[in-house]
Amino acid sequence: MNFSFEISKTGPTGARRGRLTTPHGTVETPFFIPVGTQASVKALTQEALEDLGAEIILANTYHLYLRPGHELVRKLGGLHQFMSWPRTILTDSGGYQVFSLSALRKMTDEGVRFRSHLDGSEHLLTPEKAVEIQLALGSDIAMVLDECIETPAPRDHAEAAVARTTAWARRARNYFQECAQRNGDLPQWQFGIVQGATFPDLRRESARQLLDLDFPGYAVGGLAVGEPHETTCEMAAEVTALLPKDRPRYLMGVGRPEQIADYVARGIDMMDCVLPTRAARHACLYTSEGRVLIKNARYAQDQRPIDPNCTCSACRRYTRAYLRHLFAAGELTAAILATHHNVHFYLDIMRQIREAIEFGNLANFSSEMHARYAVGPA
């Protein structure tokens, strides 16, 4: 099936340097996954993503299930062909999106019954259905359906969510393996998701339960939803200490530029976040000198590039004054250029982190990033 994961170097903190191989290419780890919710990373073409060096993107199961529909995507050759993306794709299960529709869904042991945010139609998302949808989409890595809860959460809610997440993971794993027995080896890796809110013992218990299901990779979910950064790091460390060393570890939904190295130091290999693309559309640019709020009047005559230390095409060609003008005028090009820069910046952070692991310099890199972003936005 052309799947493999190998670690080439481990740092003193537990940071790992390695390589994840899928049928659609090799991804150097640790890596950041740009989010392409509707089979599109907002404001960027696939050609631009390739030029930026993105080796993997994330697509959203919930949204693609509702529109255009997973069966249509299957009929059109799968997600890679549908969106003309030849590299690796990870799909989430839709669990987080359903969780966010608190007024439109009901959670039961069977699954999640919810109403579409598009037309109000009713649907039932079960662990098996999430597997079926993602197999139709044809992603390389597919996440199981889990129960994500609010933070802070009462302990009894967290305990119930862990129990349900494990039960759903078992059903998803069994169904996936049944599909493999019927159809032969499936060109997809399935990841389990550890829950447990901010309770260390529940995080450890959730991880132990999922280990029995022998997933080829494991994610840490339900974090970066309002808890302090230190707590996120603590929970990630609790989990990675128990996970197999030969399996990839995915921290879902993180993080800010200065935080990424902290997660890597806890043994995380992969992460995703909408922040670089969403912030770009709101005129927030991440640079080597900290955040730049480009709508600020101080940039009206600023002839410098967005980031003097950046090599992306937006920084090589355009000035801060021009980008500010584009945002002020409501031009679509503003979001395109800002997104191009922010995604480049995140991918370059990961390149620097991989290099820092190789040279045993991750702690210094992390300290420098925190120092740059300790000051408020300019």
List the helices and strands and how they pair.
Blueprint (H helix, E strand, L loop, with lengths): L3 E7 L5 E7 L2 E5 L1 E3 L12 H7 L3 E4 L1 H6 L3 H6 L3 H5 L4 E4 L3 H6 L4 E3 L4 E4 L6 E4 L1 H11 L3 E3 L11 H29 L5 E6 L5 H12 L5 E4 L8 H12 L8 E3 L8 H6 L4 E3 L2 H7 L2 E4 L2 E4 L19 H5 L2 H10 L2 H27 L3 H13 L4
Parallel strand pairs: 4-14, 5-6, 6-10, 10-11, 11-12, 12-13, 13-14
Antiparallel strand pairs: 1-2, 2-3, 7-8, 8-9, 15-16
Which tags fit this structure?
378 residues, three-stranded antiparallel β-sheet, 15 helices, TIM Barrel, 18% strand, 16 strands, eight-stranded parallel β-sheet, alpha/beta
Short overview:
The chain is of the alpha/beta class.
The oligomeric state is single chain
In the CATH hierarchy, the third-tier topology of the largest domain is known as TIM Barrel
The profile of the biggest β sheet is: 8 strands, parallel
Strands, count? 16
Q: Level of helix content?
A: 40-55%
The radius of gyration over CA amounts to 20 Å
CATH evolutionary superfamily of the largest domain: Queuine tRNA-ribosyltransferase-like
Q: How much of the sequence is in beta strands?
A: 15-25%
Number of domains: 2
Mean pLDDT across residues: 96
Name of the level-1 CATH class of the largest domain: Alpha Beta
Distance between the termini: 49 Å
CATH architecture of the largest domain: Alpha-Beta Barrel
Cross-sheet strand order for the largest sheet: 4-14-13-12-11-10-6-5
Number of helices: 15
What's the overall geometry?
globular
The SS-based structural class is alpha/beta
- Which segments are poorly predicted (pLDDT under 50) over 5 or more consecutive residues? none
